[in-house]
Design brief:
By secondary structure, the chain is α+β, with helices and mostly antiparallel strands. Strand 7 and strand 8 form a beta hairpin. Helix 11 crosses helix 18 and helix 26 packs across helix 27. The longest helix has 47 residues. It is elongated. It starts with a helix and ends with a helix.
């Protein structure tokens, strides 16, 4: 026991001993048979002990007979009866120490004396209180003075809060004491009328109180058992999660175990509250669980991290807190895990907390975590001696770590290290990562056939090997030069297909380009190429999708696994080899080769494909960039229609064809009326939406051999071979309806109309410029007519001439 506990023990001795000696000195028995009956029943009642869950203590129903003694017996008889019952109660299943017996007897003597004084003292004569109220006050006095000292000594010896001990384990029994006081008063009345033998009526009441005690405490024990089971479940969850971390980083579990020992023992010396101690115990095991979100190549990197890699590592505090938030621990684990990389001076992460803003558990954890990390071997450095590691931690006191925590750690770190070494890791905590399972013949798809250089050259002589090596080098050299000769994607892939077959045999080849979240075949050749061209492979699915997602080559995969591929029985493909094409912006596609022979590809084939994959990827990336630039030069970025440059090229080509075949050609220039008003009222973003919608409608209404282009602004051109003037007029009406619908869809009002001007080859001109100029002039004439009609319509509406309006409309 602590010094404070011994001091309190002595204080209780001083309070209770005089009362006990006084009772023994003034002993007398007014009615010996009555006292003997009371004494015997009280001693028997003291044997009916109810152990209290969670503490070293018990309750009995002997208090009922002590209260009856206060009413019926004299002072010395009551003290002797009560102290004898307490002594018998102390000798339960465990033999008590002498100081425990002395404490319990002294405490009981003081409580009995005070309760007797309340019932028989000045309150009776001076305040003239009735017997029932006095008995209730006496019962409360006995309850407080009997339970409070016991709760205090338990608090001092077991390091538990006094208020929590008294409220959790004793305060609930106050109603029993009050009921006992009422029962003692009732039996006292019966004794006055029928004699002291009526005391025997207390026996059934004693049993009822004992049983209710027992049931209530049993319920407390069940609840405590449930809490312990839940705590055990949490502990097992913690251990399982810690093993999950070990599966990610094999150096972590031993580190976590040692950090837990250090942190818990250090927290005990810093006198953390029980809830904080349990939270720290869990957090010490789980503080690195967020590393599940950090790539392994960063965790196990044998060197310094880049700033980008460190940014990825820092997320483990937030991710770990988010994971543990879902566990719903009954103590504050999450704040410790979230803040265990905060620094005392505020330079830590993730929130830059400083000083006492950091939870105490996180301050302890960060210091011991650093100490053990320095004293252990890591991928990027060797372990430091423990004393040197402690010096480094002490040097960060007041900067990275709490000075109070570092001071206590520096005093006890050797002691804590001895405790950590004395607790070896149980075998069941280690993952069976090195286990070899001998059962199982082969996976469903069979094994990848391993080959070695010796096997590959076993059937050839050294001269053949030298010749093959020279041929490979020459072919790779030629392929490398040929890939850079053209910026055409199809030409680049065609050259690759022809040259590659000398090095890696195949029956079919496909080059897939990543567009969005799926692979689209840009080039296919060989057997079954029609099926390969039609494939659309989602990322992660099939042979090629898996290669693109995982950025790893795959040898002898199953072609039938490609989504949408249907094997041709006449020309089946049984094996495939695929490599990712990684450019400057990541994976841009996959190169897949297919063969009719099963297990046709070897590790040497993979080596060759990997050797050329970067060059192929660069060439494909350049060709795609050129293709995009070429498309941008001839395509309108907003509507994705051909632009003015493309229009003139196409119109010249169409005119040459019409001259040769002596056929007609119609050019229609269209301009949106009211488009400026829409931009002014609704904004340019809504105007852009109208242009896109109208261009889609315009293109959708045309024949497959018509040509639609955007000249600029709100002006569009339609080139329609063989369209007669009458058909062109009908087409203009239809296009006007499309423009009105587009305006109504976007703006909700009929604000748009379309002015259309037509020019016909050969009547209106023989070249592109003349036809476009004539069509444009006629379009402006129609636009002026629309404006005049609208102005007249507005004026008529203002003057109120409905008949004229009707005539104009007609």
């Amino acid at each position: 026991m602590s010094k404070r506990a011994w001091f309190f023990l002595g204080f209780v001795y001083l309070l209770g001993s005089p009362i006990l000696f006084y009772g023994a000195w003034t002993w007398r028995a007014d009615d010996l048979p009555k006292f003997a009956a009371y004494f015997l029943i009280a001693v028997l009642a003291s044997r009916l002990r109810v152990p209290l869950p969670g503490i070293d203590g018990a309750l009995t129903v002997s208090f009922l007979f002590i209260l009856m003694g206060i009413v019926e017996l004299n002072f010395s008889e009551t003290v002797l009866l009560g102290c004898a019952a307490i002594v018998v109660q102390c000798f339960g299943s465990i033999r008590p120490r002498p100081e425990q017996v002395a404490f319990n007897v002294s405490s009981a003597a003081f409580a009995i004396g005070a309760a007797f004084f309340v019932y028989h003292g000045p309150l009776r004569s001076g305040a003239h209180l009735n017997d029932s109220l006095l008995l209730m006050l006496s019962g409360c006095t006995y309850f407080v003075l009997n339970t409070f000292p016991v709760a205090t000594i338990i608090s001092l010896t077991e390091n538990k809060p006094l208020r929590k001990v008294w409220s959790d384990f004793y305060f609930w029994s106050l109603p029993y004491y009050l009921a006992g006081a009422a029962l003692a008063g009732l039996i006292g009345r019966l004794n006055q009328r029928f004699g002291w033998q009526a005391t025997l009526l207390a026996l059934p009441a004693m049993f009822v109180i004992y049983r209710s005690y027992r049931l209530y405490v049993g319920k407390l024990q069940n609840e405590k058992r449930h809490v312990e089971e839940m705590a055990s479940l949490h502990l097992r969850t913690i251990e399982a999660l810690a093993l999950a971390i070990e599966a990610k980083d094999h150096t972590t579990h031993e580190h976590l175990r040692r950090v837990r020992v250090y942190a818990v023992e250090l927290a005990k010396r810093l006198k953390l509250a029980p809830d904080e101690l349990e939270a720290l115990r869990a957090a010490a095991m789980l503080h690195d669980i967020g590393k599940l979100a950090v790539p392994e190549h960063i965790l196990n990197k044998p060197g310094r991290l880049t700033p980008e890699e460190f940014e990825k590592v820092k997320i483990h505090t937030v991710v770990g807190a988010e994971i543990l938030e879902r566990v719903k621990f009954p103590y504050p684990v999450v704040p410790i895990v979230l803040s265990h990389h905060e620094r005392w001076d505020g330079s830590g992460y993730p929130h830059g907390l400083k000083g006492e803003e950091i939870p105490m558990g996180a301050r302890i954890l960060s210091a011991v975590d650093c100490l053990d990390a320095l004293a252990a071997d890591r991928h990027y450095r060797a372990a430091l001696p423990l004393d040197e590691a402690m010096e480094h931690v002490a040097g960060q006191s007041g900067k990275s770590f709490d000075p109070d925590v570092v001071e206590v750690l520096q005093k006890h770190y050797k002691e804590l290290e001895a405790i950590a070494r004395s607790r070896p890791t149980p075998e069941h905590e280690k993952l069976l990562a090195g286990l070899t399972i001998t059962r199982g013949t082969a996976p469903a798809n069979g094994y990848e056939v391993p080959t070695t250089p010796d096997q590959e050259t076993a059937s050839t002589g050294f001269l053949s090997s030298i010749g093959a090596a020279r041929q490979e080098a020459q072919t790779l050299f030629e392929l490398s030069h040929a890939l850079g000769d053209s910026l055409s994607l199809s030409q680049t892939l065609s050259v690759l297909s022809g040259r590659l077959q000398r090095l890696v045999p195949y029956d079919s080849i496909a080059a897939y380009i990543l567009r969005g979240n799926e692979l689209v075949p840009e080039y296919a050749s060989g057997d079954n190429f029609r099926q390969l061209v039609s494939l659309r492979i989602p990322l992660g699915q099939g042979v090629s999708g898996w290669v693109a997602q995982n950025r790893k080559p795959l040898v002898n995969g199953l072609p039938a696994a490609e989504p949408g591929y249907v094997s041709d029985p006449t020309k089946p493909l049984r094996s495939a080899i695929s490599v990712p094409l990684e450019g400057m912006q990541g994976v841009i596609g996959v190169l897949s080769l297919y063969h009719a022979k099963q297990d046709a590809y070897t590790a040497d084939h993979r080596r060759i494909l990997l050797a050329i994959s970067s060059k192929v990827a660069l060439s494909v990336e350049n060709a795609l960039a050129f293709q995009q630039a070429e498309s941008s030069a001839t395509t309108d970025y907003l509507t994705e229609l051909p632009n003015a440059r493309s229009l003139f090229v196409h119109l010249d080509r169409e005119l040459a064809r019409c001259k040769r075949l002596k056929t007609g050609l119609t050019v229609m220039v269209c301009d949106l009326d009211g488009f400026k008003q829409i931009n002014d009222r609704f904004g340019h973003l809504e105007g852009n939406r109208i242009l896109r919608l109208f261009s889609e409608s315009l293109q959708g209404s045309c024949r497959e051999y018509d040509y639609v282009a955007r000249m600029g602004g709100d002006e569009f051109v339609l080139v329609a071979p063989g369209l007669s003037p009458a058909a062109a007029q009908i087409r203009g009406i239809c296009l006007n309806e499309l423009s009105i619908l587009a305006g109504r869809t976007i703006c909700g009002e009929d604000l748009l109309a379309l002015s259309v001007g037509c020019a016909f080859f050969p009547d209106d001109g023989a070249d592109a410029e003349k036809l476009l100029a004539e069509a444009d002039r006629r379009m402006y004439v129609q636009k002026q007519e629309h404006k005049s009609a609208k102005a007249l319509l507005d004026a008529t509406r203002m003057d109120g001439f409905p008949n004229l309006i009707n005539n104009v409309v007609r």
